[in-house]
Design brief:
The chain is built from eleven helices and no strands. The chain is globular and about 55 Å long. The termini are far apart.
Length: 206
C-alpha cells in the first residue's frame, strides 16, 4: 500500500513538470503572459507557432504515458494504481506544484494516459477531436467532444467488467469539462477563439 501511494505521488510530481513553461524559457517566452495565459499546447501555438505547440503537446502527452507505463511497476498487481497514476499526472499538469498551481487544461496529458491505459480508445478519442476541430475550428469544442467519447467508448466495450477504467473515463470527462468551464461560457456567448486555418467550412467559403 505504501508503494502504491508513492507511485501516485510521483505521478503528480511528474505531471507538474510543465512543458509549456520549461520549453518557453528556452525560446524566451512566458506563456502565462501570452494570449489566454494558459501553458498548454493551444496557447503555445498562438504564442510561438505550430512547431512550438506540437513540442509542448508531445512532452505533456509523454509525461502522462510515462506515469501509467512506468510508475505502477512500484506496486505490481494493484489494479487501480495505473489509473490513479494517470489521474495524478493529469491533476499535476493542471495544478503544478512547481509553478504555483497554474498549469494547462489537461487534454494532452490525458491523451498520453489513454494511449497506455486504454490504447483501443485512443483512435476514436483522437478521431473525434480532429473531426470536431476541422468542422468547427474550436479546440475547446473538439476537446470536450473527445472527452465525452472516452467513457462512451469504454462503456460500449463492456465497461461493467472494467469498473476502474470506466470510473476513470467518466471522472476524466467531468474533470475536463471543469477545466474548460471558461471555454464553455465563451462558446455559449460565441466569443471563443476560432482557429480559422483548420476550420474547413470557413476555408471553403473563403
Amino acid at each position: 500500500m505504501i508503494w502504491s501511494g508513492v507511485a501516485v505521488a510521483l505521478g503528480y510530481l511528474l505531471g507538474s513538470v510543465s512543458a509549456g513553461l520549461l520549453l518557453g524559457r528556452l525560446v524566451g517566452v512566458d506563456l502565462r503572459s501570452q494570449g489566454s495565459g494558459n501553458v498548454g499546447a493551444t496557447n503555445a501555438v498562438r504564442a510561438r507557432g505550430a512547431g512550438f505547440g506540437v513540442a509542448v503537446f508531445a512532452v505533456d502527452a509523454a509525461k502522462g504515458a510515462l506515469a501509467v507505463a512506468v510508475l505502477p511497476l512500484l506496486a505490481p498487481g494493484t489494479v487501480w494504481v495505473p489509473a490513479a497514476c494517470g489521474a495524478a499526472a493529469i491533476l499535476g499538469h493542471v495544478f503544478p506544484v512547481w509553478f504555483r498551481f497554474r498549469g494547462g487544461k489537461g487534454f494532452a496529458t490525458a491523451l498520453g494516459v489513454i494511449a497506455v491505459l486504454a490504447p483501443l480508445a485512443l483512435a476514436p478519442v483522437a478521431g473525434v477531436w480532429v473531426l470536431v476541430l476541422v468542422l468547427t475550428g474550436y479546440v475547446s469544442a473538439a476537446t470536450l467532444c473527445a472527452a465525452l467519447t472516452f467513457p462512451l467508448f469504454v462503456a460500449g466495450l463492456d465497461g461493467v467488467s472494467r469498473p476502474v477504467l470506466l470510473g476513470f473515463s467518466a471522472g476524466l470527462a467531468l474533470f475536463l469539462f471543469f477545466t474548460h468551464r471558461g471555454n464553455l461560457v465563451r462558446l455559449a456567448r460565441r466569443e471563443e477563439h476560432r482557429f480559422r486555418r483548420v476550420w474547413l467550412p470557413g476555408r471553403l467559403r473563403g
